């Protein structure tokens, strides 16, 4: 079992009582509605945004003024982590409070996968819904839809986000490079013409639409690896799709569409506290920025879609300001995993870097168990409540359920959110410490254990191994770039961390 920094009940209860005195006097609206007892929460989750991709985290080549504003006005964390270095596992942990490697089937999902979250268990949105929140998700889902047979794209699509605690959902089912390339609003494909039904396959090609493999001459974005299925909007995807033409998205417009839906959710009803997860597509592949952002970064198309993401953040902040909600809203900005450059499309993401370093001074990125794979930007802003600054506390996205349950006075049922730790004092700046230990995951099978600033990577026994056959040990206080493997010289510490990781790996949690 992992041992964490202890936050006593008395300390937490006393702190929350003090917080209540701050929050409860929020002004009543003109209609005489009762004051909010809890802050609104806007969670902005970028897709593949690296630790070094924004100005407030050291980037000098890509302008990110809205994110930098959050960095100035909020608490900026330097040791915050997604649980995993890929999307589906990371997002599963964020919502469920459980390490994804504990459950089979939580790897990167095809676009027609069944729902991998069990609706019978508590989730971050269901916890907040229990506290009276209006809950919504806009953007990327990639956690499966439907029962064991998968989603019925031409009928009612459930279970899905609404069954795990969201009141409203406007989502892209998977990644932008996977079919189906349509939005799902609540239980239905948005804008679907019933006379043009959707079919999806991740096996054999279906329909008569051209594929990237057979017709590369039709592509407006070339390929480097895979992504040679059905061509949608001039870009070939993973998987095969036919039908649903009226419902298909246009890649250049995705940021505009999703951002407007997020703003609409915020402005819909200010009488109740709300929780919004705004899960952007940017800067994931395929990278196709709106024309007004093309060339704005000086770092090629990947930089341009980061500028586009920054614009989306600015629209959210502007909506909160216009609705006079900013002082009673927690805004969190983070990413689902580390950065990647060439991820299957020939978009010049490598050659156009212009000196930009997406992971900053960290080693690795997406798909990697090194720090660059899971250490992500993480800013929490709550004007007048959280003192701006920088925190080195180690926190994880898996801690959201326990921490926000504590904030809102909710009790998580026994066995649910089993890996989530209440790090609320650290999130809101009243404590400099949070976790003592954390498991990092490459998104497939490799694990690493953080114990303070020591890190152990388990032995890699695969034939095509990426990591050492004997394991790796790093002192991050002296070697944040993970260049000096101490595995052979710090044998006692290696044995201790290896044993702890093995114990943690055993079955017994949900």
Describe the structure.
The protein has 510 residues and is α/β, with parallel strands linked by helices. It folds into 3 domains: 9-24 and 35-192 and 249-435, Alkaline Phosphatase, subunit A, CATH 3.40.720.10; 199-242, no CATH class; 446-505, no CATH class. Helix content is 22%, strand content 16%. The chain has 10 helices and 22 strands. A 10-stranded mixed sheet has the order 7-6-5-4-13-1-14-16-2-17, with helices on both faces. A 4-stranded antiparallel sheet has the order 19-20-21-22, with helices on one face. Strand 10 (231-232) and strand 11 (235-236) form a beta hairpin. The longest helix has 23 residues, at 300-322. The chain is globular, with a radius of gyration of 22 Å. It starts with 8 loop residues before the first helix and ends in a 5-residue tail after the last helix. Residues 1-37 have low confidence and may be disordered.
């Amino acid at each position: 079992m992992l041992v964490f920094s202890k936050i006593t009940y008395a300390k937490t209860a006393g702190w929350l009582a003090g917080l209540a005195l701050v929050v409860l006097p929020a002004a009543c609206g003109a209609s005489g509605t009762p004051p909010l007892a809890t802050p609104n929460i806007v969670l902005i989750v970028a897709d593949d945004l690296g630790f070094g991709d924004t100005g407030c985290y050291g980037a000098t080549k890509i302008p990110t003024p809205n994110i930098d504003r959050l960095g100035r006005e909020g608490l900026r964390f330097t040791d915050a982590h997604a649980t995993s270095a890929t999307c589906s596992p990371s997002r599963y942990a964020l919502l469920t409070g459980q390490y994804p490697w504990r459950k089979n089937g939580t790897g990167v999902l095809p676009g027609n996968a069944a729902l991998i979250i069990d609706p019978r268990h508590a989730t971050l949105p269901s916890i907040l819904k229990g506290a009276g929140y209006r809950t919504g998700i806009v953007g990327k889902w990639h956690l499966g839809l439907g029962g064991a047979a998968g989603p019925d794209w031409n009928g009612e699509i459930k279970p899905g986000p609404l069954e795990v605690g969201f009141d409203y959902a406007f989502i892209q089912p998977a990644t932008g490079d996977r079919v189906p390339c349509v939005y799902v609003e609540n239980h239905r494909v948005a804008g679907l013409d019933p006379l043009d039904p959707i079919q999806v396959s991740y096996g054999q090609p279906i329909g008569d639409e051209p594929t990237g493999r057979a017709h590369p001459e039709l592509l407006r974005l070339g390929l480097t690896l895979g992504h040679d299925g059905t061509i949608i909007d001039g870009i070939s995807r993973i998987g095969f799709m036919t039908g649903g033409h009226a419902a298909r998205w246009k890649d250049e417009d995705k940021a505009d569409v999703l951002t407007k839906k997020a703003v609409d959710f915020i402005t819909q009803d200010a009488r109740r506290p709300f929780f919004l997860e705004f899960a952007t597509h940017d800067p994931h592949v395929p990278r196709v920025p709106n024309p007004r952002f093309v060339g704005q970064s000086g770092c090629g198309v990947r930089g341009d879609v980061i500028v586009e993401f920054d614009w989306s953040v600015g629209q959210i902040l502007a909506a909160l300001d216009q609705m006079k909600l900013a002082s009673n809203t927690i805004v969190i900005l983070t990413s689902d995993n580390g950065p990647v450059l060439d991820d299957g499309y020939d978009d010049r993401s490598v050659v156009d870097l212009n000196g930009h370093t997406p992971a900053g001074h960290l080693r690795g990125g997406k798909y990697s168990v090194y720090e660059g794979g899971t250490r992500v930007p993480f800013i929490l802003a709550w004007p007048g409540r959280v003192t701006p600054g920088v925190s080195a506390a180690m926190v994880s996205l898996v801690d959201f359920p326990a921490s926000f349950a504590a904030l809102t006075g909710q009790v998580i049922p026994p066995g649910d959110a089993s890996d989530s730790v209440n790090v609320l004092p650290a999130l809101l700046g009243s404590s400099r410490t949070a976790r003592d230990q954390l498991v990092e995951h490459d998104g497939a099978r490799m694990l690493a254990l953080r114990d303070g600033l020591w890190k152990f990577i388990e032995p890699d026994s695969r034939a095509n191994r990426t990591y050492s056959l004997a394991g790796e040990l790093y002192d991050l206080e002296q070697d944040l770039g993970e260049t000096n493997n101490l595995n052979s010289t710090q044998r006692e510490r290696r044995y201790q961390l290896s044993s702890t990781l093995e114990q943690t790996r055993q079955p017994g949690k949900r």
